Input
Amino acid sequence: MRTLCLNFQLHQPFRLKKYHFFDIGKDSYYYDDFKNKSIIRKVAKNCYLPTNQILLDLIKAYGDSFKVSFSISGMALDQLEAYAPEVIESFQALAKTGNVEFVAETYAHSLASLSHDETEFIRQVQLYKQKLKRMFGVSPKIFRNTEMIYNDRIGEVIAKQGFEAVMIEGANHVLGWKSPHFVYYNPLSPKLKILLRHYELSDDIAFRFSDQNWAAWPLTTEKYVSWLNGLDASDKLVNLTMAYESFGEHHKEDTGILNFLKALPKALHEQSDFRLSTPSELLQKHTPKAPMHVPDSISWSDVEKDLTAWLGNEMQEEAFDKLYKLQSIVEKIKDKSIQRDWLYLQASDHFFYMSTKYYAEDDVHNYFNPYDSPYEAFINYMNILSDFIRRVEQSTPIDKVDEILIHNGTAEDFENLIKKTRKVLKSLKKEVITPEKKTDEATDSPDAVQEKSSANKETNLSK
Amino acid sequence: MKVLMFGWEYPPHITGGLGTACFGLTEGLALTDLEILFVVPKAYGDEDQSVATLIGADQVKVQRIIYEYASSKGRQEYINAGGLMLPCVIDESFVSLGQTSIKENHDVKEIHLEGHFSFEGKYGNRLYQEVNNYALIAAQIATEHDFDVIHAHDWLTYEAGINAKKISGKPLAVHLHATEFDRSGRHVNQRVFEIEKRGMEQADRVLAVSNLTKQIAVEKYHIPEHKISTIYNAVKPLEDEKEIFPKNIDDKVVTFLGRITQQKGPEYFVEVAHLVLKQMPEVRFVMAGNGDMLQQIVKRVAELGIGDRFHFTGFLKGKEVDQMLAISDVYVMPSVSEPFGISPLEAMRNNVPVVISKQSGVSEILKYAIKVDFWDIEATANAIYGILNYPGLGKLFQKHGRGEVDSLVWEVPAREVRQIYDELIACV
Output
């Protein structure tokens, strides 16, 4: 018997509302509740609820031979709790069957793993684990990073947190001559096993299913299973990962996608020796063959399989730098709303909306994108981030902020710090001068002010 | 292939964007292996004729025929162009070279005169008369030259194009660089409107400089959409590196550069400045240009109490424009209706990030520019604030903007125009 792993990714960001620069300092609620709620309600109706029901039915019908895994971002769980609690209930029902494995990720579906300081990444994974435990009573053993972002170093951090395996993209340039049909391990932390996504077979369903210009359209389960059977007999396992929204949302029900899913287990049983399994079970059956070296970051994005969708231009870099510079300051703040915003502002989607790669393209990349242009996305985000930074600074003693800047800051930060200090000096100077305004001439240096005022004191005393 | 092209300006005697665009296109077309006869109202003799043969309408001789009726003391005048008797009212612009014949027949005296018209070739108060005379001369030119297709630029030359078509039977393309609705907003000059409409109706093809202009032709002039092709303008590559001017003030500078007229939306720029200054009092706004709305704008600036941060420079030319752009941090074009709009490209070439109105043709082709609705002062202010405060945007625009402008070469639209000529000729 060969193994087929079906993993569904579910994520929804808290989309930001239109936030003008004149809102900075006046309005500290950043989210477009109406839009977020309507998107969640719509996708719940088109996808989450009906597809969960299908999975439940399939588990009932096929028992132990129908298993899948999910990675659901913490943010998506937060939104489902708020706007579609019935979806949470149906996931709880799925969890109860024991046939569904939950795979961990970062709470905010964030880019924290790319920050130079790993603490935020680790913190978000911990938060996520707590959330899973609370909601579904499970402890995840497998990790799947945001957008499958991965490199050897990230793997090391994942291993440190006790995960057994990580799911990554089977990118050609990483695989080389290697096959994605085996289990590998991280060369820095050999205990961490690596599962590779078969992107062609995944995208056949996730991207191409309803494309009428595709040579293979319409895709039937028979056809799909014949492709699996066409793999070499020594290819013992196949990992498929796709956005859960592919079922009923990206491809609407009338494309036949839901029926495809319903019919898949039967076709697998009757026409192939592939059996559906969870990733944890897979790891019991298959042992790692070789190390998988990934020196440079990869992701599951497009053909490039790199980070350019999130960190590919100057705007994204600026936003990322300004955001993660706050990391060590925010850690120390207890304020709940600051903690919430800190998470929600980290969603990788905000960076994705700033990408200039897909600007003017009208396709799946812009699905649910609330902005007309990447510039609008950037300015809106930066306005909000400016307000957030203001709040963070207010909740932190000023010398603390400066101290952190001195340790981690850039030349630009130093300049700002000097400017700020000058301002403080200026206002202090004013306070000192004001009583003697009429007699004193304006002085330039704060030292001179001090001398003069002490000189005045002396004359006062002598009087 | 030979093209008879009607324009109003030719370098070096250029005052506006129309002349620049016509010449750019002509240069591009010359590369597609065709011959161009370029007609202007007035030839100065120092024009560069390497890409086109220039014909000054002021140098074309025509025959003027006058009929005088003794009994009624009445009088009729015509210009005879290629056998076409075109009625006209002739004023002192006709320079007579002498009488060629007089015939008397009972009551009627028929006088034949040879001569030519003088032209200023400007946009003064003799404009309508010159437009008419130009059209008469066009008919004569059409009889004297061989050509395969006629191309007329803007309403000033449409009547000329129509006459040339009448005489020769060759296909006519009219080029819509701007419409009366762009120039005058709601106060449309009926006479100009009618010439534009007639030109587009009589033409075999209308070339619009943007989809925005195409849309106006469809909606306001009722020209069938299939007859209109969008041909975007381009820019000439810089011949050599421009002089670099240092930025010697600390304050951020936001610039509006253009005529201060209703079409360019200067009043929105003032409101935007007011919004930005509330949050960033240290920014300076500059309005460079002149126009009939200047008074009104100055008054509004004073009303808002932002006079110390809002500066007027008057009309800038040549080097002054480059100096202005060199100290600018953002360039704003809030035009209400801009058929194309070449000026932001100049700013981008100078590494200045641009915020342009969506109601401009150029916004249809630019990627590295922020596009806003001209009336949306909040969005415009937000874009300016973003560029001034978040350096990532400026860096991105500086990296790609210039390359984007440099890719807009005239060869591309020229190839498209050439294709249209071929289609028109094939249909004859």
